[in-house]
Every structure is written in C-alpha cells, then in structure tokens.
C-alpha cells in the first residue's frame, strides 16, 4: 500500500484533503493525524473492521483498549452511560485538551475498542486538524498513538512514516506536536477518581478543578483483582537499542557520576550517549550529549522527549545515561516514560 503524506499546516487551506481523510475513516480505513499530545492512528470507533485495522497496523495486542476521540459533548454522551459531576467538571475545564476520561461504556461501543472492558476511554483533543477530522467523519475516532507497538510515540509526521509507511493509506502532517507525551488518563468509574497514566495535566491541577482528592496509580502494573486497570500498563514499553540508565540526585553529583561512568565505559570500549538538559549540556564529556529541553520549563522536555529517544536509535552508542527529574512540574509524566525506556534501571546518589 502506498502511504500518502498530506501537509495540513493551515487547516483552512486543506478542506479537500480533510474531506478525503474523513471519507477514508468513514469507509473503515485508518488515517494518522496530529493531536496536541502525540500523533494518533485513527479509525471509525464504532466499526469493528476499522478497529481491527488499527491493531493490525500497529501490531498492538487486542486486549490493550483504544481511546475514542470526540469533537463535542453530544458525541461524548452517546458513548457513555452517565457522566458523574466530577468528570463533568474536569471535562468542562480541560477539554478540548490532554485529558482522557474512563467511564462506563454505552452499549453501542464495540467491545473490541475497550478490550472487552465495561468502561470506555474518551478524549476531546485540542488540535484543529484532529477536531476537524472528527467533525467531518461524524463518528468518534478510535486512535492509539501512531507508532509500531513498543516504539516511542510519534511527535512528528516523520516518526509516523518511520513506523507505518506502506501500512496505512494516509498521514496528515501537522508538524511537530505541542505537548509530546500522551494524555493524562483519569478513571472516573470509581468513587475516588484515579490517574491511570500521568500526562500534561497534573494531579494537583485536576484536584483543584474538581474539588476533591484524586488517587495516583503508582504501580506500573495497576492490577485490581487480577484485572489491570489500564491494560496498556502490562505491556513492555519502548527500550532504546542502547542500554539506558537514569541517574537521580543533586545536580552536581549527577553530572560527576555520569562523567565518571562514561569514562569507565569508554575504557571498556563502549560509546556513550548522555540525555541531559540545556542547563547542564556543557558539563558532559561523553561521545554524544543531547539536551532534552530546559529543566526550568518542563514543557520543552515533554515536547522533545520521544524525539530524543528515537534519535538515539540512529546513533552509534552502546550505553545511554540520562538525567532524571524529581522536583520539577511534570516530572511524573516525564519519568513515567523515561523509567520504562530505561527498563527501570536507576542509580540514586
Ligand atoms: P494509547 O492509545 O497508546 O495512548 O494507549 C491508551 C491507553 O489507554 C492504554 O494504556 C490503555 O490501557 C488505556 N485505556 C483505554 N481504555 C481504557 C479503559 N476502558 N480502562 C482503562 N484504561 C484504558
Ligand atoms: Mg501508545
């Protein structure tokens, strides 16, 4: 299959292309499109055949459920049984935006979308192209990240091409995304809302808006009576080709430790990469030193994280040391992805 790459920087100039993409979705095909978090691989969320195509193109296990993307509240209401007051407050405030809500599903939501669960994940993305695509398709769009399962989520159309060229008919290229990490997933099907995956919207922001405590699911395997709460959590996540370790601690000590480890690795004949920040990038002496953004502005870090991780797969390094994040806002979202990439290898000093 030939994959058509369509640039949609100015949505106003692209109504023909958007109609074509929406038509593909309505027909049961899949289309990759930009959202503010990461690129999604979208298909008609009410059509089993389309949902199967998504799983197939990504190589995703079919019990790892998908998020349904909506363009308005009427569409949301049609997909769920009821919306509790807390969830409604959160949606009013954060939508369109990088928050996914989990609620008991309406009957019409096919069970292949929810991996057989009785709940469904719904999100209204804050991206003109995504919203227009859903409006034109007139159906909720089921969309996981548009990467091959197990690779870092795509934050540029080039990343989608890298993984899915020849496997899907169309990619809408909206340039680099803004947020760069996947949505915060909040389970509102429980009495106390639970964050199942950290993202751009933090626990504190959420609690302030809904006016009640929120629980953070800290376990990577969020099992509850043997059923994983966010089924995606049980799957192996992206690990770079090079062996990666995170070093946590006071800034000067971390720099000294990483430089010392790098010297030792070089003596062993290994090439060493370092993932650091703008504040420290001049301090390292490894073979390949890459800044992931500004520590004083963590949104620059979420935006660049996956691009930096993907970049290392094209570089000639055997070992990667990465600075960690603890005190900064959005540390939870960043560390959630970094720790998985490092296969939980952390040195604390
Ligand atoms: P992705 O599409 O790659 O952003 O992954 C979607 C995430 O949402 C996965 O980790 C899923 O496990 C999670 N998810 C989707 N639907 C549900 C649901 N009904 N209950 C809990 N987690 C869900
Ligand atoms: Mg994903």
Protein model, in words:
The structure is a single chain. This protein has two domains: 218 residues, DHBP synthase (Alpha-Beta Complex), CATH 3.90.870.10; 106 residues, Threonylcarbamoyl-AMP synthase, C-terminal domain (Rossmann fold, 3-Layer(aba) Sandwich), CATH 3.40.50.11030. The chain has 349 residues and is of the alpha/beta class. An eleven-stranded mixed sheet has the order 1-8-2-3-7-4-6-5-9-10-11, with helices on both faces. A five-stranded parallel sheet has the order 16-15-17-14-18, sandwiched between helices. Helix 9 packs parallel to helix 10. The protein has ten helices and 18 strands. The structure holds adenosine monophosphate and magnesium ion. Magnesium ion (MG) binds next to loops.
- The domain count comes to 2
Bound molecule kinds, no repeats: adenosine monophosphate, magnesium ion
Task: Kindly name the structural category.
Answer: alpha/beta
According to CATH, the fold-level topology of the largest domain is: DHBP synthase
Under the CATH scheme, which architecture of the largest domain would be assigned?
Alpha-Beta Complex
CATH class annotation of the largest domain: Alpha Beta
Overall, the morphology is globular
Low-confidence stretches: 220-227
Q: What's the alpha carbon Rg, rounded to whole Å?
A: 20 Å
Give a short summary of the structure:
This protein has helices at residues 15-26, 48-58, 73-79, 85-94, 128-137, 157-164, 203-210, 251-267, 298-312, 331-341; strands at 4-7, 31-33, 40-44, 67-69, 99-104, 119-123, 141-142, 170-173, 184-187, 194-197, 215-216, 223-224, 227-228, 243-248, 272-276, 288-291, 319-323, 346-348. The protein has 349 residues and is an alpha/beta fold. The protein has 2 domains: 4-221, DHBP synthase; 243-348, Threonylcarbamoyl-AMP synthase, C-terminal domain (Rossmann fold).
